[in-house]
């Protein structure tokens, strides 16, 4: 029996945002298209205020338990603690129309025994409900547990998966914070933990839309209650509830509770929307005949539109992407564009590139409206208007880039950028300024600011078509990639950096650990951890032992340089958990051998020592001596000159050609050697001709020869191997991407 226990005083006013907008359905979809689902955040509980408001969140206790209370956690700050209690809120989904799913995201941490408690009988709680939905008389319910156990029982049938009585899934560990993102969809459900996909289930033997609509219809959402088992002690923070299915933006792990910026380096400062189309539709919707295709190379999966028709084919972005500039009063849009499949220049010379309206499509797309024409000109009519005339152009004439001056005529990829403030607008192609306008900011024909104050009115946002007014211009058959929207005006330097990063050579091997260890293997005691900030998952090695702990890369990672005769190894390194500088001053960083491990790691061998020196012994050898150093002496960066002493992240890069080698820290050249390329002590080229002999490739340990240097307790991220010699400028681009 449940026992209700109210606090003697009001506990935390909780930020509980419940809102609704008009359902989509204002448009008349073309035949075969359904009404478009709209992702909407309908509740967000942050637990940041001083007291809980009992009118917004009701707290209860199990027999002999305590009501949930606010607790200060050293990692996430103020959170909600459950120790023999549970809570409920009015179901925010009652106020909206749910279409294709219900989604929740939250931080949670299950307690483990304290040091002075008996841990011998401890078992992780995998049966207590994290959240549940239940009808008024408790005869129907749906709940979810830390085992990924999704259980539904209703008058219209029942369904469950991952019942811990059948098997323990290991969905998440106890004793540490995890970020959980779950969507229950009409055809199944998925669960991500710490940004990693843990469960993705398509259900064919039960209609999961019944679960979705049940979750949307019952009066309460319960937290810490709903299964037949009381929860053990646990903590909760930043619970968000969404109607419909969440996208990459919501799945990505926030830097900390309450901070919506995303780990992993995908979002630049001010970036409010980004999609590279690598995971499903990323919250976008294809209108008409376009499709996602695999272009390959640095572009991967892209959106290919279909040209020729009018207001018929384009990609619809989430309706809130232009609503984030009210405070900053700035906006930028960037996207890669390719006309390889769009026909001749004359086929798209008047085409729209990016357009936004209140609703659509319509044969007369009037106000509110924002249009970016492919040819490099703009128009705004949103709580004020501006036509960006010749007179307002800083060159006193608008540059029109189409037909004979088509900037896409070479059928390659080019980067389009528009930046806007209240009194200025710029259009760039590939980082080159093509048009700039200055306006007064007030009065007819001079108002850009409505884009910021009323950006939320622009809900029907189209990439690749849907021309403005009643103009008869066809949608273009362009390809698009990496659509990004910012609530700031990007500088030319920032635009150049985005372009340079995209144009970097493609690594022949890369691992950012966002899918766990991936195709590498942990040898010894290292783990995949999540330190926060811009790093996402990282490999955390364990230091102190000799040839015992490191990461083994796939055996072919160094086998791709026979033709190019160049090699670059780049990896981010952090010594926060590695002890004092003297604990790792002779440590190996990146090592490769014919096999291993061994107490005497001889030839073939490549050794990149942490302190900035190198050695090659692979079908020829080079010790990279003082005499070969361009400075006349090798500089060893360790002990008093430890480059990792600040315990921050730094990029290590080693670059090899047949006659030259360089070591960089954070894009700064630290050691360089020139060799003849032939004769004893001068051969690097065996790395290329015989790179496939180096099959046992180690990150973070396994010292060369019989030297007695311990494996270091470094953390590593973004290990990249290239079959080209990166330039210093390219390395600096890698650095700027993360710092």
TrEMBL record:
Signal peptide: 1-25
GO biological process: carbohydrate metabolic process
Gene3D superfamilies given in the database record: 2.60.120.200
Keywords: Lectin, Signal
MF terms in GO: carbohydrate binding; hydrolase activity, hydrolyzing O-glycosyl compounds
Pfam families: Laminin_G_3 (PF13385)
Name listed for the protein in its UniProt record: Concanavalin A-like lectin/glucanases superfamily protein
Biological source species: Bacteroides stercorirosoris
């Amino acid at each position: 029996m449940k026992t209700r226990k109210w606090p003697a005083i009001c506990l935390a006013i909780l930020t509980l945002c419940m809102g609704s907008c008009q359902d989509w359905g204002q448009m008349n979809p073309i035949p075969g298209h359904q009404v478009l689902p709209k992702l909407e955040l309908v509740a967000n509980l942050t637990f940041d205020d001083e007291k809980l408001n009992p009118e917004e969140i009701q707290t209860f206790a199990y027999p002999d338990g305590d009501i949930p209370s606010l607790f200060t956690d050293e990692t996430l700050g103020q959170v909600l603690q459950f120790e023999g209690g549970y809570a409920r809120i009015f179901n925010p989904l009652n106020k909206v129309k749910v279409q294709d799913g219900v989604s929740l995201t939250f931080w949670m941490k299950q307690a483990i025994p304290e040091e002075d408690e008996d841990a011998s009988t401890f078992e992780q709680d995998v049966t207590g409900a994290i959240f549940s939905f239940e009808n008024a008389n408790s005869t129907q319910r749906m709940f979810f547990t830390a085992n990924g156990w999704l259980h539904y029982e209703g008058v219209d049938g029942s369904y469950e998966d991952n019942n811990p009585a059948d098997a323990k899934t290991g969905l998440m560990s106890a004793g540490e914070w995890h970020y959980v993102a779950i969507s229950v969809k009409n055809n199944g459900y998925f669960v991500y933990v710490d940004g990693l996909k843990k469960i993705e289930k398509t259900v064919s033997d039960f209609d999961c839309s019944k679960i979705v609509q049940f979750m949307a219809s019952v009066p309460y959402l319960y937290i810490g209650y709903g299964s037949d088992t009381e929860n053990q002690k646990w903590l909760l923070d930043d619970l968000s509830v969404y109607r419909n299915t969440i996208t990459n933006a919501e799945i990505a792990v926030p830097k900390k509770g309450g901070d919506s910026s995303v780990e992993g380096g995908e979002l630049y400062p001010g970036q409010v929307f980004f999609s590279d189309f690598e995971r499903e539709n990323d919250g976008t919707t294809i209108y008409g005949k376009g499709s996602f295709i695999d272009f390959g190379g640095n572009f991967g999966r892209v959106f290919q539109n279909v040209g020729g028709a009018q207001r018929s084919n384009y990609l619809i972005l989430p309706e809130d992407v232009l609503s984030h500039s009210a405070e900053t009063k700035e906006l930028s849009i960037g996207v890669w564009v390719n006309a390889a499949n769009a026909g001749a220049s004359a086929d798209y010379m008047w085409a729209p590139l990016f357009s936004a309206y209140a609703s659509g499509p319509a044969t007369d797309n009037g106000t509110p409206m924002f249009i970016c024409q492919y040819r490099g000109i703009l128009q705004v009519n949103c709580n004020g208007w501006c036509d960006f005339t010749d007179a307002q152009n800083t060159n006193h004439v608008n540059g029109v880039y189409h037909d004979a001056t088509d900037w896409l005529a070479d059928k390659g990829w080019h980067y389009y950028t528009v930046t806007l403030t209240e009194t200025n607008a710029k259009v760039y192609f590939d980082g080159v300024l093509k048009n700039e306008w200055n306006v007064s900011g007030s009065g007819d024909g001079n108002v850009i600011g409505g884009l910021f104050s009323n950006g939320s009115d622009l809900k029907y946002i189209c990439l690749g078509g849907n021309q403005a007014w009643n103009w008869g211009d066809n949608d273009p058959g362009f390809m698009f990639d990496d659509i990004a929207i910012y609530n700031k005006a990007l500088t030319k330097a920032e635009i150049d950096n985005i372009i340079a990063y995209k144009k970097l050579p493609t690594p022949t091997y890369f691992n950012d650990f966002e899918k766990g260890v991936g195709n590498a293997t942990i040898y010894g005691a290292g783990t995949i951890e999540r330190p926060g900030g811009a790093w996402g998952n990282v490999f955390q090695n364990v230091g102190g032992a000799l040839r015992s702990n490191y990461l083994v890369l796939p055996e072919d990672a160094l086998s791709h340089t026979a033709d190019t005769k160049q090699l670059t190894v780049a990896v981010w390194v952090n010594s926060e958990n590695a002890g004092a500088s003297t604990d790792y001053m002779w440590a190996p960083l990146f090592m490769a051998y014919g096999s291993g491990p061994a107490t005497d790691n001889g030839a073939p061998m490549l050794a990149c020592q942490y302190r900035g020196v190198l050695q090659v012994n692979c079908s020829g050898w080079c010790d990279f001596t003082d005499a070969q150093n361009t400075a006349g002496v090798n500089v060893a960066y360790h002990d008093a000159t430890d480059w990792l002493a600040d315990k921050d992240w730094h990029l290590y890069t080693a670059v090899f050609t047949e006659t030259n080698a360089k070591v960089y820290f954070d894009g700064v050249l630290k050691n360089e050697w020139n060799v003849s390329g032939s004769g004893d002590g001068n051969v690097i080229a065996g790395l290329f001709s015989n790179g496939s002999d180096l099959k046992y490739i180690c990150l973070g340990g396994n010292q060369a020869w019989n030297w007695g240097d311990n494996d270091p307790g470094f953390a590593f991220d973004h290990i990249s191997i290239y079959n080209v010699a990166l330039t210093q400028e390219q390395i600096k681009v890698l650095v700027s991407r993360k710092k």
